[in-house]
Specification:
The chain is α+β, with helices and mostly antiparallel strands. It is built from 14 helices and 20 strands. It is globular. The mean pLDDT is about 95.
Amino acid sequence: MPQGIRVAFNQRAEASYRSPISGERRAGDNLEELLLQTIREARQELLVAVQELSLPRVAEALAERQRAGLRVRVVLENTYSTPWSAEHEAELSPHLRHRHRQLMALADANHDGQLSAQERASGDAVAILQRAGVPLIDDTEDGSAGSALMHSKYLIADRRVVITGSTNFTPSCIHGDPDDRRSRGNVNHLLRIESAALAAAFAADFAAMWGDGPGGAQDSRFGLAKQSGPAQEVMVGPSRVRVLFAPHRRQDPNQGLTLIAQVLAEARQKVDLALFVFSAQSLADSLRELQQRGVGLRVLADPGFASRPFSEVLDLLGVALPDQDCKLEAGNHPLQAPLAGVGIPRLPSGDKLHHKVAVIDNRTVITGSFNWSPSAAHKNDEVLLVIDSPLLAAHFTREMDRLWKGAELGINPRLARKLQRGRQRCGSGAMRG
């Protein structure tokens, strides 16, 4: 590993651990244990900003540090800031109802299908934090109904260690769905970076969201109200690390899609992409330019996203898919010469490819919570990292190689059927204005 930087992948083939959900040994690094170890080692302060925190052991570790006198602060996305044990399943959306059932299954320690009061209390991460008096806010703390998404995923320990990456602090993002033994979790990674300078940059982003904390002046700032600036650069050992906190206005030259395009433009030999969401037309255009320059491209996208009408994976495959109104994405540019190295990985049903990763010329890694989408750039609270390190790039390339094995490349049968249905229903479709 590069000096000061460690990366862990929850499905890495060369490692294994015993799953706290199934009790079985499984391939991968234990991302939850990385979080727990860092929390337990903290001596002064723990700042957490994560879209969702539903791992009871992580919540209990934070609560223990709070009881020990540390300064603990937590920011969540408002969709996930209510204790699930206080929710009524019938009132939830289908997505949240499914989540509710998964967390009930996780809390059912004796697997009898019934939850005791003790199981509910010990299995609800947000309730654990609340009982311990851990100060907690969400993106409604500014007095609004909430920002687009508080999508960041980071933990800062003692202003010197940052843990960040693609991973929410949830069972499904780390170990697997509690109600499905076949699940291995969404494909994710975490970085642990030791750097006071980088921690200071993250702490400033946290401070903008935190304001004066729960209640008070409602001076928290989320989304565009943060007025995020340009990427900040620090050295971690020999590695240059650039960090950008989103969002930015569309005309802002500091916005994340522009930074990604600038880094991609530096490629000379090869680019690997492993992406959950890819809906930014400008970045598809960047890949077209790389193709024309002869840069080798390997692109894997989440199977559930790749064939949606607004997916830029379709552009790379040279096809277009009308939406439910028979409209095509505005500015759509399917490649005249489709890329050969584009596809989807084979994953257990329900699991997602959740990385937001690019590796450029075996030396530079783009990562963070930042999906390759306009929403990430212009609406959500996000983290985007660009790290220049051949050693780190080698680890991400191995992860890409693992996902590449057995991947379905090109227009797979499922996509072919969707394209056929689209043609039958809409013809060639009409461009959105």
